[in-house]
Design brief:
The protein has about 300 residues and is α/β, with parallel strands linked by helices. The chain is about 35% helix and about 15% strand. The protein has one domain: 3-Layer(aba) Sandwich (Rossmann fold), CATH 3.40.50.720. The chain has helices at about 15-20, 55-60, 80-90, 100-115, 160-180, 200-205, 220-235, 255-265, 285-290, 300-305; strands at about 1-5, 25-30, 45-50, 65-70, 120-130, 185-190, 190-195, 220, 240-245. The structure holds nicotinamide-adenine-dinucleotide.
């Protein structure tokens, strides 16, 4: 069975390709060609170099596929001041101001339109916890959950174009599912951690001195890849469209969840009464209930695997 992976030259794709290649024929679709020194297995997959915002490229990439793993995207809001500053100083490639909105929304639209014309059965899409209004907040305010732990019924309040484009992506998937019978699943990934965490990174994130809108949730890249496969494998048993948070059940913190809240967000302590000692503030339970996914890797393992300095 053939699966198209969009964004297949990106950093998470390495893990997704590894997870899927034992069982599926893969079509790797990206606007850049995967570099030669990644997975040896890529040599046996089909490569489509093209752009998500070009309908004909999307048609070439999905022809003959049973399913699509849609992870191609601009994974941040290109209009934000930190991004503009990084681009202007040459630390990041210069992107047009509207790049995130254009690629993530129009690219998803062209892909879904190509998918339904090619009778693709299922699309599993990378969404993000950002849909809640986490991450960059142009308002300068902190995200305040309505309740804890946050679950899939929680209201969405995106502020930047990245978060907004992921909400639009979820809505498009739902519309194509309703309108054309496509099976569509949006996996709202927590921040993806990969083996090799440096002590500096861990110091900054696991022992924070300030509140972080990402709520200290995380997911190991290998677990996230497994969630995509398990969701696809369960598609026939799931509702035609659904969204799931994909996050580890524990926080990315040294101190306990309640200590963190008491120190940095005392206003949230009252709603955290039922939380476990190191429980994450976003619940992973729906993915477990629905298709049996539970994260197996913890951030502490990733630290242990970090290279000696
Ligand atoms: N990395 C994280 O912590 C995280 C967290 C939540 C969600 N996500 C989502 O997971 C997915 C993968 O993230 P990643 O960290 O691997 O990002 P990445 O930037 O490493 O990979 C994205 C890939 O998409 C490709 N792409 C971008 N625009 C394209 C276009 N117009 N046409 C074709 N290909 C295009 C890029 O070339 C790149 O290879 C994204 O959808 C991202 O929003 C990531």
């Amino acid at each position: 069975m053939q699966i198209t992976i969009t964004g297949s030259a990106g950093s998470f794709a390495t893990y997704l390709i590894k997870e899927l290649e034992p069982a599926y024929d893969l079509v790797l679709f990206d606007r850049v060609r995967p570099d030669g020194n990644r997975l040896a297995g890529e040599n046996r997959h089909s490569i489509v170099v093209g752009d998500l915002t070009c309908f004909e490229d999307c048609q070439r990439a999905v022809a003959g596929s049973h399913a699509i793993m849609h992870i191609g995207a601009i994974p941040f809001a290109a209009e934000l001041p930190w991004a503009r500053a990084a681009m202007e100083s040459g630390r990041m490639p210069l992107l047009p101001l509207d790049e995130t909105m254009r690629v993530n929304t129009m690219g998803t639209y062209y892909l879904l339109e190509a998918a339904r014309r090619a009778a693709v059965a299922t699309v599993v899409m990378a969404s993000s916890g950002a849909v809640l209004g986490l991450g960059a907040r142009p308002s300068g305010t902190h995200f305040t959950p309505a309740y804890l732990p946050v679950d899939e019924a929680h209201p969405l309040a995106p502020e930047d174009t990245y978060a907004l484009s992921k909400v639009f992506g979820e809505e498009m998937l739902a519309a194509f599912s309703r309108g054309y019978g496509l099976r569509g699943y949006a996996l709202r990934l927590a921040g993806i951690l990969r083996p090799g965490l440096t002590p500096e990174f861990v110091r900054e994130h696991a022992a924070p001195t300030g509140w972080n809108n990402w709520l200290y949730n995380y997911i190991d890249a290998r677990d996230a890849a497994r969630a995509f496969r398990m969701c696809l494998d369960a598609a026939e048993r799931l509702p035609a469209f659904d969204v799931f948070f994909v996050t580890a059940p524990d926080s990315f913190l040294i101190e306990t969840t309640r200590e963190l809240l008491a120190r940095l967000r005392p206003d949230l302590v009252g709603m955290a009464a039922g939380l476990g000692v190191h429980q994450a503030l976003i619940s992973p339970d729906k993915a477990e209930r629905s298709f049996g996914f539970r994260a197996e890797h913890r951030w502490t393992e990733l630290l242990a695997e970090a290279p000696a300095r």
